[in-house]
Write a structure and sequence with these properties.
Layout: E1 3-12, E2 15-24, E3 27-33, E4 36-43, H1 48-58, E5 69-75, E6 81-86, H2 94-97, H3 102-107, E7 132-133, H4 134-146, H5 149-154, E8 158-163, E9 169-175, H6 178-191, E10 200-203, H7 209-217, E11 222-225, H8 231-240, E12 243-249, E13 252-257, E14 262-263
Parallel strand pairs: 3-6, 7-14, 10-11, 11-12
Antiparallel strand pairs: 1-2, 1-13, 3-4, 5-6, 8-9, 8-10, 12-13
Helix pairs in contact: 7-8
Length: 266
């Protein structure tokens, strides 16, 4: 089972308990083709060869039945890996020749980069002096829910919303992809020249590394998600100075990083 345990604070009805929570591992896998970096995908480690083989097939890079040679070039304790696959030039499909990585690019904001070093995000850690209460978070999520028109009709879209320090709604956007919804929100604030007012990012699904990195670059210090957070999301939230909260629903929430931004006790 690919999980790690993280200390966190579980809050219910303004009462808190320190707990040890299991989070799904998220780590980068760099895929090389014929010793040339091709793409990076964020995945839960395990069955990496199957993942690569399926990716090559879906991208029309290799659809032959003949088995391929896979070499693990690097495998770190943090589960980041580099795997090289050898494919003869005459058997490389059009997907490789056209340099198309549509499957990996559409899955997340980081996937599609070519090397592990490309994942580095630099900058000073964020800070936040204005605390947010559990009640205010619930009220913000209610506003988000009220504006999810596409989800009400289809049940198949994600949403993101950004609020200022007064818990006033600045923008909300829906999309079939969580990362796309976040990008749309940040883009709308840039267009209206109010990105500096952003303080809280709400996400309708889970939070992985890409969303944390997007919030950091936009200088948004608080992320609250309806669902789970990945290990890499928590690790980077701690490093970036971002308060990261998951499972915010039914008067509950679990705080994984920088709890000092939240007022949750009576």
């Amino acid at each position: 089972m690919q999980t790690n345990q993280y200390d966190s604070i579980k809050v219910k009805d303004n009462l808190s308990d320190k707990i040890s929570d299991h989070l799904v591992i998220e780590a980068p896998l760099q895929i090389n083709i014929n010793s040339q970096s091709y793409t990076v995908v964020m995945r839960t480690p395990g069955n990496d060869i199957d993942l690569i083989r399926g990716l090559l097939y879906a991208e029309d890079i290799y659809k032959e039945k003949t088995a391929l040679n896979f070499d693990i070039e690097e495998e770190k304790k943090d589960f980041s890996s580099i795997i090289n696959v050898t494919i003869s030039k005459e058997k490389l499909g059009k997907g490789y020749l056209n340099k198309r990585t549509l499957l990996s690019v559409s899955s997340c904001g980081i996937c599609g980069k070519k090397e592990l070093d490309d994942l580095h995000v630099s900058g000073k850690a964020l800070s936040n002096s204005k605390k947010v209460t559990q009640t205010q978070i619930q009220q913000m999520f209610q506003l988000l829910s009220n504006h999810q028109e596409t989800f009400k009709v289809t049940g198949g879209s994600h949403a993101a919303a950004i609020f200022n320090k007064k818990q006033e709604l600045l923008t909300i956007r829906e999309d079939i992809g969580r990362h796309n919804a976040v990008d749309k929100c940040i883009g709308s604030l840039l267009k209206n020249e109010i990105l500096a007012e952003a303080n809280v990012l709400l996400v309708s699904g889970r939070v992985s590394y890409e969303i944390v990195s997007k919030a950091f670059l936009a200088k948004i210090p608080i992320i609250v998600a309806v669902s789970a957070c990945s290990t890499l999301a928590v690790d980077f939230a701690k490093e970036f100075g971002i308060c990261l909260i998951g499972f915010s629903r039914n008067n509950k929430m679990t705080i994984y990083a920088n709890p000092q931004y939240i007022s949750y006790e009576r």
